[in-house]
């Protein structure tokens, strides 16, 4: 059945900010959907609050609303745009929950905009655990025994029936939030208490424990003619008990018998039919008991999920794209496969390779958190790799994760059997590096049976790790590296670095020997059909095989290095710049070649670039891709500036190997990164920087710090995302910091800077071509200096900077760009203190603010940057209309809207071993996973939208608790007085209350947590009872620290807004006032850009 004629416009609901459990895989699926719908001539209206994704760029939809995804706002968009249908299955749980709420309010019916992709009944059947149990029963399969509870008493009696341990699962939450295993009543009270609260329906399911069972998933699609395809089977390396997003996973499933696989397939197909998903993909999870083969259906997601992105990249079958076509009426047999161009989408993919996904964690950012992996997802990203066998794919994936110690190693002495048993005991607890512990235990002589008994990992996988260990011994003991041995090791995924360590020689020597012996990889193609048909899309992976499938080409190629797995400090913003570069350079006549290993992103889509290599971003792998491309045709150069720190770290080594690095030279990158060299650039340009020094030992550090004067900011050199930064107030803390940090990097010293208290921090993104500079935008941070720029909310245009300040920022930035030798993008951070503009740091690369600036000013910065790197000038780009002809982002017109960027923090997912939430204080180390953007006519409204989008809705009435450090007491009088005038009740601790009272603000006194007495509630009791709507708490000295922590942890657990800086309080008051004055209106980015019209500003018209 062809396309439906009654759908002319569709509202696509995005997934909002990137949070743990809902990352950029939904941007990838949403971006695909928008592209497909527009190709079909349908008007696309998009709502998504996330500025960092390419999906919210104005060219991907006809009307792009960067607005909070709440039922009220989405209703306003529906009322304004009047779409014929709403597509909510591609935006994760956020979109589904919002659509269900709109349905329940009668909004979809009122505006005649039904859901497509999955109807309301199907969503309810798949999401509601009790209804889904009925589905499974009707399909002749079984679910885990379970009981639904709505209160703690019900939970306790249910646990009595099921027997401990029990699994707690809240309804309608994402990424397993609030779920866990309760081994006794204390656990149950803690986990189920939190779960009841996180569930929008105050409902949790308790079920029998299937800990240690094997876990599988099937990715299934169905159309309205009842054609069903199983796109991919995925097996978890870790047994049940670890969230599938945190587990190493393998596709296709490897340890099932054919009969077991057919049984899973039959159940999966029966379930999707029974649920009635008739236009799209869904993901069904199973548990299989390894002792008797009993199969249990765990759950299904009636939407595109995290696994769908993995399945799409693993098979080359674009699930989201096909789901979007089916949502508007097509059937599977009518949609062509892009890769073969002859098979239809009803043809199931066949794999002649193995895919392994490894998650990436960020526990180093939350040292207090319990690092045990549970059913609550904690990973922040993932890497995927493809190999001809499991061992090759696994080793490639482990080195793609870019974490020290993530790969298998054979360092040090052989372990004794007792040591091996101790290591095995450590591996009992599932953690981030457990697979390496398993490898070490096997290396030390533990048997596969022993390891299986402790970890529950399938013996087949353990046997494969044993194969790798045996081969390592062979390599170490061989008289010499013969071509046969080298090739054998390479086919099992050994890197040159691993072989070098085994042979005790430098990596470069191993590479030299390997090249001399002619042991080089070839590149195979992902073709969906195991080479049964010809493939037209060059989507490649390396293998030490015979025949290469890289086709020759004529146009010059540009190789773009992606950013690898997402992590805190290097997220989707960098992928955004890589994708933009690929599009812009293809348009400019180049073939673009993308190298990346992140399955969640748009950059690893097979049609983003002319060619895609799914490879780890290590020197060895990049050099081999470069060699393959040089053999295929001319190469104009390699782009390292756009993918964040990962490719930047390779720049020097690539240049040394003779690879042409385009844009800013590796030497110039070094100038900005190396402290001494950067100091000389500043001195030559006459620019002020905070006093600083470099230390290699703790005694040296103390001497420098005393010379500068406390407080000081200390950090290791060469970092991204403020890794390891701290503000230090005295000698003792400094000594312990240095002793800890020198472990982080023995060859890199510690940097010590004067910490500027009470400074305004400013961020600027510029383009420089060697002659001219274009200022993308100048942002003013809302929080003061000392909070990592990636965690600070900021505004564009700047909210309080005068023209003279802005002119100084522009002048300094130009001097820096010239002094460093930038070609392309540069980001500079300044601090304005006592009217002196200090340079904090300059980064000659794409920064995380590029997408935000592009959306706020309507100018595609990343496109322009990629053109400049390959020789275009700013003058030419202005003439072409890529950049505005006569103005730039430093001189925004008076009527420009205010844009506010606010971050989303993952504290709720990280708990200490005692089950308390980790502290939510911000500091110089970056901890946010994503961001949202609010855009409106004035600052108050824009900040309000950013807060609503960041899932911390500001209250418009109720009770506010205020307790601040002494240094902040003067500053809070006006904002708190304004809150009282707006009708809020103020409660406070005694010290703050006294100051407020003297200033005519009636504040009720409430006891501190530390002062609580038997018959009186403390502030923490007030918060936990839900009596406080917003908390203002700035951290003070050591005594107040513990108290403040208890208050902040309780507030975060209750999901109430928490304000920890005075600046944020001022902004929040303006926002609350704006909401009270009269709702929020919605405007699309296209309308904002047309009204702003930087491209239409004439030379004389600058104000």
Report on the architecture of this protein.
With 1103 residues, the chain is an alpha/beta fold. Helix content is 38%, strand content 19%. β10 and β11 (228-236) form a beta hairpin.
Structure summarized in a few sentences:
By secondary structure, this protein is of the alpha/beta class. It has 38 helices and 38 strands.
Secondary structure elements and their pairing?
Layout: E1 9-13, H1 25-39, E2 43-47, E3 63-65, H2 71-81, E4 85-87, H3 92-104, H4 107-110, E5 115-116, H5 120-127, H6 129-138, E6 146-149, H7 152-162, E7 166-170, E8 180-182, H8 185-198, E9 204-208, E10 214-222, E11 228-236, E12 249-251, H9 258-275, E13 280-288, E14 295-301, H10 306-315, H11 319-327, E15 354-360, E16 381-387, H12 390-400, H13 417-426, H14 434-443, H15 448-455, H16 459-477, H17 483-491, H18 496-503, H19 507-516, E17 522-525, E18 539-543, E19 557-561, H20 572-587, E20 591-596, E21 611-614, H21 619-632, E22 635-639, H22 645-648, H23 651-656, H24 666-673, H25 675-685, E23 692-695, H26 698-708, E24 712-716, E25 726-728, H27 731-744, E26 750-754, E27 760-768, E28 773-784, E29 794-796, H28 803-820, E30 824-833, E31 836-843, H29 850-857, H30 861-869, H31 874-880, E32 898-904, E33 930-936, H32 939-949, E34 959-963, H33 969-981, E35 985-988, H34 990-998, E36 1004-1005, H35 1019-1024, E37 1030-1033, H36 1038-1054, E38 1058-1059, H37 1062-1077, H38 1085-1092
Parallel strand pairs: 1-2, 1-4, 2-3, 4-5, 18-21, 19-20, 19-22, 20-21, 34-35, 34-37, 35-36, 37-38
Antiparallel strand pairs: 6-9, 7-8, 7-9, 10-11, 10-13, 11-12, 12-15, 13-14, 15-16, 17-18, 23-26, 24-25, 24-26, 27-28, 27-30, 28-29, 29-32, 30-31, 32-33
